[in-house]
Amino acid sequence: MALRLVDIYHPDTDDALEVPDDTYDVLGHWTYAIDEEQRVDRVLLGVEETESFLDWV
Question: Which residue of 23, 31, 35, 40 shows the fewest CB atoms closer than 10 Å?
Fold first, then answer.
């Protein structure tokens, strides 16, 4: 199975990125603070899920 790791950089707020697991076959989801003002969410998906996931983002 071919995989893709998608990095989503965004302002750090109290609201976490909620990936709809029932819509996308998410194999992994991690959140890291970059600094006090921004963070990155890393989402691991199968290649076939990537295009529709990026449309959602």
Answer: 35
pTM of the model: 0.81
Owner of token pair 């076939």? 48
Sorted by sequence, the CB contacts under 8 Å of residue 53 that are 6+ apart come out as 6, 24, 43, 45
Q: Please state, in angstroms and as integers, the Cα–Cα distance from residue 49 to each residue in 2, 7, 33, 35, 45, following that order.
A: 11, 15, 25, 30, 6
Angstrom distance (rounded) from CA 27 to CA 32: 17
DSSP tag of 26: E
